[in-house]
Amino acid sequence: MFGKMKWGIHPDTHKAPTEGKAIESHELPGKVILPVRQHIGAPCVPLVKKGDKVKKGQLIASASGPVSSNVHATISGTVVDVSDQPHPSLGKCLAIIIENDGLDEWEEGLITERQWEKLSKEEMLEIIKNAGIVGLGGATFPVHIKLNPPKDNPIDTLIINAAECEPFLTADHRIMLENTERIVTGILMIQKILGVDRVIVGIEDNKMNAVKTMSNALTEQKLEVVAVPTRYPHGSEKMLIKTLLNREVPSGKLPMSVGVVVQNVGTAMAICDAVRNGIPLIERIVTVSGSAIQEPKNLRLRIGTPFAAAIEQCGGLKSAPEKLIMGGPFMGMTQYTTEVPIIKGTNGILAFTEEEINDGPESPCIRCGRCLEGCPMGLNPSMLSILAQKGLIDEAINEYHLLDCMECGCCSFICPAKRKIVHYIRYAKKMSALSAQKGGK
Ligand code: SF4
Ligand code: SF4
What we know:
With about 450 residues, the chain is an alpha/beta fold. It has helices at about 15-20, 120-130, 145, 170-180, 180-195, 210-220, 235-245, 265-275, 305-310, 355, 370-375, 380-390, 395-400, 410-415, 420-435; strands at about 25, 30-35, 45, 55, 60, 70, 75-85, 90-100, 155-160, 200-205, 225-230, 260-265, 285-290, 295-300, 325, 335, 350.
């Protein structure tokens, strides 16, 4: 599927403004907005109503259905509303709004010190499930499901994804330097749950201090740390598996089909906090950066913090941003308001001035072939965009493998005609999904 070895691109990393700065914790926001859907799967069912008092760590929305993930209060205070609110990836979503009482009190009986080595795999999975942990690299798939693959899918290798290949983002880099012990403990917990001997931590070679720190910390456990070449999109599961194990995940399949589970490095830390200390997923590290941010930083933020409050903690905006993104510049999602909250999958908030965006008008394809060379999935992005524009979705799917596109954005980045290829591809995928929903497929 990957076709050739020369996949990917080398954009400027833009990591310098934050990679050397320690993670900062700031004042808690006046309110948090907690959507009942912050994960892949069914929305949670709210357990609280307007006027209720809640404490930090209290379960406020319960998972529903086989694929779902609990939501907890991330500050103590009063529920002031349960209503539809702006959501950074869904547009709108039912959310629980908590007004901060300033006390930051934990739910009673929650925080504990467990000897995790004595816990069974099932006990650990139950704790992870109850703690509402989802993949923190942005995928947001409930972790208790990913760590419990079907028995007919034997797993022999755990890969910890610490590539952090998107420009600007440095949150994973910083936690590897500052929270090494929690990450290592989380990795050992995942290793025990999966029952695998082989564990590889993949880190891009533009973070050699993290490679060294993690290698030193993992020597005793005999776990491998591998520096992979800095090349976007090395952080995608399929590319990392190809580089580290030379295994190819077949079209339409998951990493488990080749015996691999991939977990983000931040997720390992969240697993340690939940299993060892009883802490549900209530906060995460977020990179706030881009040319429109006064003082780019990595912040420890409570989930539900409005983007505006996070940006304020970085000195505010230099000017009204031309573009606001949740996540990285390639795979992130454009936002239209700073009133959206940090959700479990928010690894970055990027705000750009007009000069930095400089999209320019697109022109017709000149058939230079650069997008074909750069596509990590070996697709024909030019043809996919043309078919999408013409509405020939079936042809794009059946003959040009539209659904194998991971929307990495390499093709758009290198296109000299500035064609918005990913935009067309996303549109075609949406049309295909809508058609399937209507029973047309
Ligand atoms: S966005 Fe899709 S088509 Fe474009 S380079 Fe990435 S995988 Fe290939
Ligand atoms: S890179 Fe752009 S101009 Fe070149 S073939 Fe692809 S779509 Fe056409």
